[in-house]
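Please check this protein record:
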Amino acid sequence: MIKQLQLFKLLKEQSIVLFKDSHNVHTAELVIDKILDNIDTNYDCFLVLYNIEFTLSLIYKYNVDPKNITFLSDHENKTDLAKRLNIKCFQMEEKIKMNKRPIMLINPPYTNGSQDASEIYTAIIDNCINKFNPIAIGGVTPENLMNGGQKKKTLRTKLNEKYNLKYLRFLSQQRDWNDKIKVDTVSWVYDENYKGDTSIVSRYSNTPYTVNTKLDEYVDGATQTIHDWLISIQTTNKIKLKAPKLNRNISQTDMQVKISKEFNDSYTLETGIKTESDNNEWRVVFGYMRCNTVAIVPPGASVPGKYRYMPFGQDEALARKFALYMLSEPVRFIMKLVYTSRTLDNPQLSYIPSLDLKKFNNIDNTVLYSQWKLDPTTQQVIKDIIGVEVPF
């Protein structure tokens, strides 16, 4: 145990230098151990990719025989350490031949490291599943694997069809990483033989809760009560924002909206290109890339392509109700849980209930909490988590 702690301390402090020009992100000991607590460490075949830290915990804390561990190294210093640990080590994935289906452990590179930061982790995991056919997988990835679209959704669907999600932990920078991480991350265990409910740990609470009827994707439900409440208030209809459109056949200048990033319902007008953005209607406008505010825009000006909006015809009162709804405490809280991407696309709004706001004389937190029958204790939990943040 002492040797393990010394090695983890060394890697935490020196990984960037020791493993330069490779996957040199240190995987924290707590993050690894929470994964290993949820796999069968008595199994006799482990495949670890990139992250030598997994092997340290397997050997020194979980007493796994080094001969039962195969390691894929992407740096000579990792290779040297693997040899000192007496584990089988390969520098090329193509050379790895497993005698039986392994338990796979991985915290892959998330992007290609270039300026465009193209996502690559889904392809890495998908390739490993195809090649090694693991019986279970313990991994660390960006959170968007659990609730993102496109490649993330494709991989998530594959995992859910082939395995059962046993454990999911929404990682906290302070609690789990003890460091600042640029992206929201999760750790998880998919197990082919597991048949029970999914155990989830929120980044806002240390108390696990279980999920047996999930939403379309897994989101951080904070507590059992909040998760169950979030499921109970879902509506068939979904809120869908519109994107402005350029008429490429006609290039006209027009006054465009520019939303304040400091104050809600504040904007200025500036000269720009005319867009087709329901210009004759009242609109509630949001930033496509996060700007943390919303604005109510009257008929007249164009909405530029960097924003998204909801039109309300000539009904100014309804537009203002919708803005109040989206800025309410419970809705901001839901957005904080599910808005994990860089851009505000409709999937990020899919958990916001679509209410007939015309039935309400006014919209505020009290009205919404009463509508959704949420107890005062849980209301306070929500208030403590969201505060004044506007996660749009």
User: Anything to note?
Assistant: The chain is about 30% helix and 20% strand. The longest strand covers residues 136-142. The first helix runs from residue 2 to 18. The chain has two domains: 2-220, 245-386.
